[in-house]
Amino acid sequence: MSKNLFVTGTNTEVGKTYVAGLIVKTLHEAGLDVAYYKAAMSGNTRRADGTLIPGDALFVREISGISQSLESMCPYVYEHAVSPHLASRIEGSPVRMDVIKQSFQAVCREHDYVVIEGSGGITCPLSVDEEHIQLEDIVHQFNLPSILVADAGLGTINGVVLTYEYMKQNKMPLKGILFNNFHTGNLMEEDNRLMCEQLTGLSVLSCIGQGDRFLPGLTAEKLSALFA
Hints:
The chain is α/β, with parallel strands linked by helices and about 230 residues long. The chain has one domain (about 5-225): P-loop containing nucleotide triphosphate hydrolases (Rossmann fold), CATH 3.40.50. It has nine helices and ten strands. The strands form three sheets. A six-stranded parallel beta sheet has the order 2-5-1-8-9-10, with helices on both faces. The radius of gyration is 17 Å and the shape is globular. The model has no long low-confidence stretch (mean pLDDT about 95).
């Protein structure tokens, strides 16, 4: 079975998929057998034949160069750009934990490392109707260590500290923080990094600039040590 790492964020649109893709890319280019998984994916477009394109999975595959099938990357793909619990209600395909277990374990059997991306922030609900499933249920179900992606800009201290405290209270171990959209030398963003480290006790593992195709300061060896 694989070693795994969960990628969560302070909010939606902070760059989780981008960072997850760079993690997969770094490990893949180092010759490691790595795969990607996301339980539920919203806001996707359709092909000419009407089938949905799992956009996040496609991005990760293209940026990383892995050959994993899109179908194995995500069991639940929705068109509406809303939380998965609402998208599944609108589209009539509720998320089920047994499906997540089966599909995730199948990926784990085939690969040495699996990067799991969450939907939105850590409190995002995946299902509230037939089953009540939160992202944290997946983290607990598979004993996943996590890293936190945060935008480097204004407001990030609050988002990082609140997410850290919630995850600590609910026994979800965080390995560190990755800042996205970072501008080296920017006074506020440099201070944000220092304050987030001071207030959480976690290290900012990498500060990623716009358009970066690598993770500054993070080698494949350092990345693989985060997995469990």
